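Review form for a predicted model. The reviewer records the input and the model, then writes brief findings.
Reviewer: anonymous (R2)
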Amino acid sequence: MPDIVFLHGEVITVDEQDQILEAVAIKGNRIIATGTSAEIERLISSKTTVIDLKGKSLLPGFIDSHLHLSAYGIDKLGVSCKAPHIHSLQDIFQDLRKKVSRLPAGKWVRAWGFNETKIAEQRYPTREELDQISTEHPIIIIRACNHISMVNSKALEMFGIHKDTPDPKGGMIGHSAEGELTGRLIETAHFQIAKKVTYSQEEIAQALALASADFVSAGITSIHDAGCNDSDGFRAMYHAVQHNLVKVRIYAMVCAMDNPELFLESMINSGMVTGMGNDRFKIGPAKLFTDGSSSGPTIATRKPYTSNPEDYGILYYTQEELNRRLIEAHKKGFQITAHAQGDRAIEMVLNCIEAALKEYPRPDARPRIEHAGISEPDLIERMKQLGVIPIPNPAFFYEYGEGYRHNYGVRVNHMYPLRDFFDNHIVAAAGSDSPVTDYRPLFGIQAALNRQSKQGQTIGSNQTISLLEAIRTYTWNGAYASFDEQHKGSIEVGKLADLVILEGSILHTDLADIADIPIHMTIIDGEIVYQDE
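Model under review:
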């Protein structure tokens, strides 16, 4: 007999036929029956908890296939540049001063979510302005893309960066026209500093718990973590899951934000491989970075930026370097993936995947490309032939859409092209890239339906998809991207009882209002982990 039954609902199964049913029964952590309310009512015993959905939508738990758990959690401890009251640099500086006043000298002061296009001054802060806030505390302001930061003199001093320090490969240290340090750090220069912004074990545990709580309140039951600063962050996630501080299931990419190739090499040599672990915490793909941020903009493109005919973006590796590192991971049994936003970077990753599959063929390797930003038709054809799983980020259009138009022109018609992916039978799994943008899956689903910016501009209307297709990108497709489609991602008998109940019917909600549907309940492993008041 079932422990819990859900009756009289709008059960969106995301099964092969996209059936919409009425009722579900679960026993322990598994789904044991689906069907009409009358069919499920016959299973009820005196010990069964009966939940009348009253027409509410019941869906598979949402799967975010690309976000940064620890980065989001740590950001919760800092200053948010996305807070509603932030309209100018002075607003940010005021919040930083408040934070400084509560911290002893030497402690890091961190702000996140900065976007120069969203504030009155339309520019980055300067090193001198941050020095006026404090020269005794290292200060870092991280741009919303998480690929660029601004720091004060104390931070530069702590890590030995002076005006003659050479740029690291794949990055830049900002200088003024006079050759002085501006405090801006781009790509690998940023990652090297961000890695050294340290927190106590207690702060990290608190950050992970805060992140998990936010995610389950949005209906997220599984995440694909896209990388930590270092092995300590990887270990901290595992321990947080073990001690039940983190409720969401984690598929952890093997990636460090700074020197990812060294971290990857050490993990390969340790004997780890994709799939190790359990259904709470599992080793995911081997990941490297190939280019930069779509909003920076620092992505690597085949044609110059529309906004700058001299700019083709930043590449982290040569083709030979990328192949050497990822093919070795593939050879050892890892699923492989890479951050690739621009079409030039995507082409390089596809070259690498093709070489890996040719040199070391194996069935069902499921290589991925994180973001797959500008995926033009020739690249999509190659993805289809190679069985690549792209991981697009539909919510980016809301926050960064105008910048995409400005920097890439007509190429926006091929950015995160979900319509093309579906039409070519490519399994694309969506991710928020949080904290880069809003983590709520319903927000991402709405963005996939309308591709509208915050100002109401439509960015590539040819790539919109249907509601059921959008739901699939956040459920079954995410499960497929982690080799878990037999266990989760749809509401079918035998699968894990990972479910989300919405406060209303998603199928009867205006498409412009989907992001605002409240989450009524989130269930992981048959346990209610979130319920609204």
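Findings: The chain has a mean pLDDT of 94.
Further findings: DSSP finds 17 helices and 23 strands in the chain.
Recommendation: see findings above.
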